[in-house]
């Protein structure tokens, strides 16, 4: 599908109906894409089916013949960035940059080469225009409200040996820990009392927490709080993912970290890129609100690699994209490697907003860990989400995926929102004055 004007969007009543419709359409040899629903048609969290214009009638007939209901099917309407090219008129920019910005204004897809150009440009005017354009798109697509979520790092045990990670199997950490269900629920209820709508349950790849244990926890969270649940627990089987989804898990965060297979193998000596990709595709197939992300500044990484990552997020219809600088932990094989650049990380965030549009983009903790103003800068560059570190104090210092981790709390989140000129969500039941 070359341009948005050639697409039709099918909106279904539920995730299960959408997945069933997609399966039937594909069985007829018709190409489909699962994409985050354009904001004019629905929630940022929902997924729709994109088809080519010429397949519209065949698809509609196929759905009717199979008694599959759908809410809407209509042309994808372009979301043009009004006045973008006019605002660049007086800027000293190259013809190449002007052509790229023109395509972005017209809601046309940009290529890997064009993304790479945006990542590489050293022109102050062009860099400034990238950030301004991303901020304009963020405002027009997802608005001014910053989503606030709470993350609980419930275990720092991990069976994997990633070369940069401070909780890797071979790393000596201050103390390994696992949180009990009651401890997790105590934090859950605290977040719920603040009005937080989504909790992120994050851990190393720890087989102690079986699917049965996690299902019990998920069902209890749903029963007692009805909160949305994001899991970030690494690679599991398709059957496990399916069982957790049926239990009530809504979102899943599994970062690809890099789409360069050589770099992936270098940083993950006991991981397999194709297995990670298979897991991501399985999560999408099961209808999770799918999360991914990458690290900026990995050893050997080039701007072309980052461009591939951004296109991967788009092609995989990723809803939540966490982009942070590479920060190796002390005591790991990579501890002497240089950390990633704040500026390049911010630029990757901005360009991801321009390419992927209607997605959640966190102002990541990693960014805040190497720049005290990192989250404010990210919010001004297209980000729209902050994740609080809600792990109990007695465990926090032991969950060091990278060194010198910044512990994002309500106070720092409120500060970043205020400094970036953004708005807090109305669902919060706690005010900035209450956390001074």
TrEMBL record:
This protein's UniProt keywords: 4Fe-4S, Iron, Iron-sulfur, Metal-binding, S-adenosyl-L-methionine
Location of the Radical SAM core domain: 144-364
GO terms of biological process kind:
sulfur compound biosynthetic process; water-soluble vitamin biosynthetic process
Q: Where does S-adenosyl-L-methionine bind?
A: 257, 276
Q: How is the cofactor bound?
A: Binds 1 [4Fe-4S] cluster. The cluster is coordinated with 3 cysteines and an exchangeable S-adenosyl-L-methionine.
Cite the binding residues for [4Fe-4S] cluster.
158, 162, 165
State a single Gene Ontology molecular function.
transferase activity
What InterPro entries does the database record attribute to this sequence? Aldolase_TIM, BATS_dom, Elp3/MiaA/NifB-like_rSAM, FeFe-hyd_HydE_rSAM, HydE/PylB-like, rSAM, rSAM_sf, Se/S_carrier-like
Where do the annotations place (3R)-3-methyl-D-ornithine binding?
232
Tell me the cofactors it needs.
Answer: [4Fe-4S] cluster; [2Fe-2S] cluster
Report the NCBIfam families cross-referenced here.
rSAM_HydE
Task: Give the protein name, as stated in the record.
Answer: Iron-only hydrogenase maturation protein HydE
Organism, per UniProt? Natronincola ferrireducens
């Amino acid at each position: 599908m070359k341009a948005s004007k050639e697409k039709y969007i099918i909106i279904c009543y539920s995730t299960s109906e959408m997945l069933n419709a997609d399966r039937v359409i594909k069985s007829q040899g018709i190409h489909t894409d699962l994409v985050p629903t354009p904001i004019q048609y629905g929630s940022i969290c929902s997924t729709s089916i994109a088809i080519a214009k010429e397949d519209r009638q065949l698809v509609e007939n196929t759905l009717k013949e199979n008694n599959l209901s759908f809410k809407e099917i209509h042309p994808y309407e372009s979301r043009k960035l009004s006045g973008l090219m006019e605002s660049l008129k007086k800027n000293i920019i190259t013809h190449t940059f002007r052509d790229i910005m023109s395509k972005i204004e017209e809601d046309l897809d940009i290529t890997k080469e064009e993304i790479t150009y945006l990542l590489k440009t050293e022109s102050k005017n062009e860099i400034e225009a990238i950030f301004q354009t991303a901020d304009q798109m963020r405002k027009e697509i997802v608005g001014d409200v910053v989503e606030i979520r709470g993350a609980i790092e419930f275990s720092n045990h991990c069976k994997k040996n990633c070369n940069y990670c401070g909780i890797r199997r071979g790393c000596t950490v201050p103390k390994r820990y696992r949180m009990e269900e009651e401890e997790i629920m105590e934090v859950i209820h605290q977040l719920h009392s603040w009005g937080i709508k989504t909790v992120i349950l994050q851990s190393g790849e720890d087989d102690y927490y079986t699917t049965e244990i996690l299902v019990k926890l998920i069902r209890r969270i749903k029963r007692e709080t009805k909160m949305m649940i994001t899991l970030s627990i690494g690679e599991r089987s398709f059957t496990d993912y399916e069982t957790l989804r049926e239990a009530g898990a809504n979102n899943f965060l599994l970062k690809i970290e890099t789409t360069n297979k050589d770099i992936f193998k270098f940083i993950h000596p006991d991981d397999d890129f194709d297995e990670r990709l298979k897991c991501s595709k399985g999560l999408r197939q099961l209808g999770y609100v799918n999360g991914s992300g990458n690290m900026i500044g990995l050893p050997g990484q080039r701007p072309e690699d980052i461009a591939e990552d951004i296109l991967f997020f788009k092609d995989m219809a990723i809803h939540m994209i966490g982009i942070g600088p590479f920060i190796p932990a002390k005591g790991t094989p990579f501890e002497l490697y240089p950390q990633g650049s704040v500026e390049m990380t911010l630029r990757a965030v901005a360009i991801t907003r321009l390419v992927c549009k209607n997605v959640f983009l966190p102002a990541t903790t990693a960014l805040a860990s190497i720049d005290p103003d990192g989250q404010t800068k990210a919010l001004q560059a297209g980000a729209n989400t902050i994740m609080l570190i809600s792990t109990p104090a007695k465990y926090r210092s032991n969950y060091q995926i990278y060194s010198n981790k910044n512990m994002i709390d309500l106070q720092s989140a409120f500060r970043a929102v205020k400094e970036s000129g953004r708005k807090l969500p109305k669902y919060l039941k706690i005010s900035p004055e209450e956390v001074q």
